[in-house]
């Protein structure tokens, strides 16, 4: 397996976000939080994000940032991974890809939750398995009490046309 750290970059509180879906969701999160560190989950409206819903993931932060449970996975993201991991923890969802994959995905979520800051992760996902393409993502903490991140709103983007074409060719 290829070294994950060589293929994926993570930036805490990125100064610039180029992908339009990620930029829109980041701007939305900033508007909802205002002068606070993080907005609450109740302030995040699916209706206001309807154009981005296919790219969105919502996870619960488990006690002590030990793991994260998928509450919602957008249809485009589920298509990319070939499965919908809603209800599973990161450990359960990424275990088939190995311990390094589990630790890497948890690490990005943990940074966003512990630091209470946006984290952008991007790069080549071929370290998961052959056929996974480049991606760009943003992880945005949410808090019910204003102090502790208890959820993470994220968006995971990639070239949907390429992934869709690959999955169609696998069915032929």
What does this protein structure show overall?
The protein is of the alpha+beta class. It has one domain: Beta-Lactamase. The chain is 34% helix and 23% strand. The protein contains six helices and six strands; from the N terminus they run αβαββαααβββα. A six-stranded antiparallel β-sheet has the order 1-4-5-6-2-3, with helices on both faces. A hairpin with an 8-residue loop joins β5 and β6. The longest helix is centred in the middle third of the chain and has 17 residues. The protein is globular, with a radius of gyration of 15 Å.
CATH architecture: 2-Layer Sandwich
Strand order of the largest sheet: 1-4-5-6-2-3
Which structural class do you get from the secondary structure elements? alpha+beta
Q: Give a quick account of the main beta sheet: strands, pairing sense, barrel closure.
A: 6 strands, antiparallel
CATH-level-4 superfamily name: PAS domain
CATH topology, by name, is Beta-Lactamase
Tell me the number of structural domains.
1
What is the count of DSSP helices, taking H or I runs of 4+ residues? 6
- Average residue-wise pLDDT: 86
Give me the strand/helix succession. Answer: HEHEEHHHEEEH
What is the percent of helical residues? 25-40%
Distance between the termini: 28 Å
Shape label? globular
